[in-house]
Amino acid sequence: MIAEVILNSNAKQLNRVFDYEIPSELAPEIKLGARVLVPFSNRKELEEGFVVNIKEKSDYKVKSIVNINANYLDEKSISLARWMAERYFCNVSDCIKLMLPPGTTTKILENRVKENLERRVKTMGLEDSLFQIVVAEEKEIEYKNGKPVEKTHNLFSGYLLVQMIMTDEAWYVVRNTPGVTGFIGSSGKGAKPFPVAQEEVDAVLRRLGRQDVNVQVDFEVGDRVEITNGAFKNSEGVIEAMDEEKKEATVLLILFGRETPTEIPYMDLKKVD
User: Fold this and answer.
1) Cα angle for residues 51, 53, 54 (degrees, 5° grid)
2) Which entry of 138, 188, 218, 234 is 20 to 30 Å from 30 by CA?
3) CA–CA separation, 195 vs 166, rounded Å?
């Protein structure tokens, strides 16, 4: 069987159907309106699309659908999306997304961005600056017809949590990763964001059943460091103490002519060589 798929793309030249073979193992699940992942052209990454028709055969040599995310729409919804696209001169995929339940339009995108960022970190050798990339998903049980059904719920729809040392190189890589559109705590125009409070991060990780990941640092007590973010950005001082539980260092800064101990998160510190 062959599925006609419209790609989730704003490109005008892609606003048409593409044929894909339905693998036998996915055949029972593939229906009109299914949200699927498919290979496209020579791209390494899979593309998201929507099944808008199912037929017996294709006139072309076709690739296969790789995976299915969910079945959300029916034949009437697909017909309505086609009518809207024709009447209002827009892409069918945009009309389809308007009909999806709240919270479902970003799920695949979040994981795609996570994969993109992880790949870039590995390629550019930034494992010492970017440690953990999290899609904050948790499993929950819903009951349908008296039977428990396990579903995945995103705590922060449309967002990733990234644990990193805010070096210029790491910041450049993250903000230029395809799919990244903005940051909480940033004023925009390339300004670095303020970090989320460690207590909040710990609470999220505990809820997700994850262990805290230690920030790997190359400084110790007595080292001179530079502050890379926050109110004391570009200031230098000497580490007086380190708190592994809070992931903070007490840095002696010269403020108003006096040496003042100040607590700074590990990720906002860089050793001065």
Assistant:
1) 100
2) 138
3) 9
Residue whose token pair is 């007086």: 240
Listed by start position, the domains of the chain span 2-98, 107-207, 224-271
3-state secondary structure of 170: helix
pLDDT of residue 212: 46
CATH architecture of 107-207: 2-Layer Sandwich (3.30)
List of residues 6+ apart from 159 with CB closer than 8 A: 110, 136, 184
Single out the residue of 191, 110, 121, 100 nearest to residue 163, CA to CA: 121
Q: Identify whether the C-beta of residue 262 lies closer than 8 Å to the C-beta of residue 238.
A: no
What is d(CA 33, CA 50) in angstroms, rounded to the nearest whole number? 6
Class of domain 224-271: mainly beta
Which pTM value belongs to this model?
Answer: 0.41
72 confidence band (pLDDT: 50, 70, 90): low
